[in-house]
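Data availability (excerpt). The following record was deposited with the supplementary files.
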Amino acid sequence: MSIRGKVLLLAIGAGICMFGQLQLSIAQHQPTPREQANIANNEMRHFGDAPDNPGLIATDLSTSTRQAVVAKAMRKVADWQLERSQPYLDRIWTWSVLYSGFMATSESLGDPKYRDAMLAMSQKYDWQLRSHLPNADDQSIAQTYLEFYLLKKDSAMLQPTQKELDAILAAPRTSTIPGKEIAWWWCDALFMAPPVWSRMYAATGDRKYIDYLDEEWAKTSGRLYDTQEHLYARDSTYLTRTEANGKKMFWSRGNGWVMGGIVRTLEYLPKDDPARPTYIKQLQEMAARVAQLQGPDGLWRAGLLDPGDYDEPEISGSAFFTFALAAGVNQGWLDKKVYQPVIKKAWAGMLHHVYADGRLGCIQQTGAEPAPFKASASYTYGVGAFLLAGSEIRKMDHVAGR
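Predicted structure:
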């Protein structure tokens, strides 16, 4: 283990509960510290850091990307997570990513049980968001709500979210808080909010939602996207941050969520939107850079430009990269000959972190930058990304005709 890793492990062991919740409350627009602590404690108790001996890695999964084989891995991970999630389903961003994965899994596997669980969750909350004038984190769950609306055309599934987005459009768009003058001031917000706005357009046909989306994405991209490295800084406070090796700090998960956000936004973005080529170009640039940074094990470390300073691969970032690359290939935005080997290597790498009971490990805890974590650590958003990746890999296999 590197010196930096050892120091950080000591610090995290003593201070993650207190500092982590304060960090989230300030940096990611989370609920109050008490609310966030309750959420984090539930996740930690039931999903997060496993016991020191979490069991053996699964030996019944093949690294093949054939449809049936990928389906087996998806079902194993999804069933483990669903069984443990039912009592704790929340509307916070950590859960909304999982919900997107469950929705994709039901469609991919033709199994309604995951979608049924998401319908029950949505009905429990009466299709409401967490807050009025919700930030990106609290908008994220609407991806699931709106996907149900697009399936069932029930206005009750649409109206609460539409009311909140319209309120955002009517409210002032400026802030005097340094570094937070724009709506999506942290890069992971680009997965949370833009796919909601593109889905709202698909549901209503009203281009005002696309106009807002394009305008706000351009602001975030202009501030955080490094046009030389083709990666995003987490937020403006990270523009000058560096890793132990002196290179710029680019967080795997944050960049994975940007790429995932691009493909989920493009899914419902109108074909004639003038900004559409810009999104595709950015996906292509980021894909090329990420492929260069893939590790020998097929995965990516938490700090993209200093992989040697991190002991474990980070699955949530790796899974989002895999999802975005596979979706890009399936849609024809990325060259299959170039990226299919990257995708297959990444999927094989992730399967080496699935435990015999279905637990998916090596997922970094919530935060805002690269940090150490246990090899057994498992969190909802990483599972959601894994399921999204699997669903696109199954489509890729179908297209290949195998």
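Summary of structural features: Strands lie at 225-226, 231-232.
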